[in-house]
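Recap slide: Erythromycin esterase, sequence and predicted structure.
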Amino acid sequence: MQATKRLTGIISLGLAFSLLLSPVIASATAQKITGSKENIQEIKSLTSSDYKDLAFLKPILKDKTVISLGENFHRVAEYSSMKTRLIKYLHEELDFDVIAFESGLGDSFMTYDNAGTWTSQQMMERSIFPIWHSKETLNLFDYIKKKQGTNDPLYLAGYDMQFTSGYLTQFIAGWIAKVDKDQGENYFNFEMQAMTDFYKVLNQYGMDDSHPEAKAEIKKVKDAYEPKYKALIQFIQENKEQLAVAYPANPRMVDIAVKTLEDRVKFIEMGMYDTKESYEFRDRIMADNVEWLMKVMYPGKKVILWAHNDHLAKNTSKIETKEQGKWINSFTSMGELLHKKLKDKVYVLGLYMNSGKASTITTQKIFDIQPMPKGSLEKLMMQSGYKIAFADLSKHKSPNKNNAWMFKPIYAAEDGMTSEIIMPMSMRFIPKEQYDGIIVFDKVKEPTTKL
């Protein structure tokens, strides 16, 4: 049985579903943007350091504490270029000082602390997931490296609990070995074996929900290594003063190490759940990690989050998504959890494309994206005539003839929880419920991976 068949909120595609949606479809296809000059802004450049075309953002974002930069698909060049430009703007014009990725918490900490000795490319490859390893994202790491050591640094952080790279394991092992060589070597060996055993199960059974025996095998991995992680955490806590002396560069090293090791166990545990459950499990931890970063690591600083739209939108559990031919309710995301706590201190920006090319997540195979159909969010915003169209939804409190589309259900393209490519009209949501702002690009291309 596929994952989606065991999820709650499944909606039949039979007659009842057709009758339910037919008025909405008719409404969506009839929608047109009126008053587009009032509701849609043009962004003129992906890379310019002249921010005149972004000046309209200052009054919108000046009182925000967190800016969430989403994307409906990971492997798109324009998304990384635009996010990089927005991050520079937010840092230089609105005093945002932390960029936190949907990548390993400890990995990003380690990378930023070693920025003085590593190249920008090494920083990128050792801190964030390979889905963003591109020339477009490298531009951001050039900027982070340039700003480190100045009076106005841009701190690199991560909030994911997933294993990102072996460099962090090597880094922590070397640090522990300064106090106890055997402990350091033992940690390196058991973590590498734990990840090997975990991925062996995933490679054998795949990642869908049709193999209950896979869950049992992953539980065996968790049971084998959780005691080792707990023992190491206890060692770190009992020797935290010596370990702090062994890494004088940052007084938070012990805190980061403990949090990272706790997350390793949770990462393995995540594999024991079905698709939707695993998303929600992971997103609860990511939300906790973001709050921890803001309270412990960077108190008082304004933070930018980089992730998929699915992790950042404000009410994801209200989104309907088409998974393997079935319409289901999406999962409760990190964004939904953070929105409940931070409310209007967060500004969530979703990125979408109308047409072009992108590359698949795992194989990087290039695929075409045909122009989005009538009735879609993308087609609607492209009526503005802009190649990069920005809509601010936050200022609109009630519907009128110019903004009615923001308050009605509409379809948009997504890769969802299981797809490798963009699927047109595969999500249905009310824009105002999910986002404070939306950017749609008329045409995109795959990221530049040759560095």
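The radius of gyration is 22 Å.
Residues 3-94+308-441 form a domain with the EreA/ChaN-like  fold fold (CATH 3.40.1660.10).
(End of recap.)
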